């Protein structure tokens, strides 16, 4: 399960970066903001998984 969550976090981060970049290129502020939000969700998920790993060891 942890590997799936880590992969999901990475996917959200990559998706967010792409969305943010596309928003910047097109001048779409909403898309840029959504991209940043996706990245933050991925960052939070990744931090949660790292915390779990810390307590396992």
UniProtKB/TrEMBL annotation:
Disordered as annotated region, ranges: 1-57
Ranges for domain CsbD-like: 5-57
Compositionally biased region (Basic and acidic residues): 1-22, 31-57
The family this protein is said to belong to: Belongs to the UPF0337 (CsbD) family.
Protein name: CsbD family protein
């Amino acid at each position: 399960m942890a590997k799936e969550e880590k992969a999901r976090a990475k996917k959200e981060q990559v998706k967010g970066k792409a969305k943010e970049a596309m928003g910047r290129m097109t001048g779409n502020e909403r898309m840029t903001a959504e991209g940043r939000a996706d990245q933050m969700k991925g960052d939070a998920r990744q931090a949660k998984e790292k915390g779990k790993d810390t307590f396992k060891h």
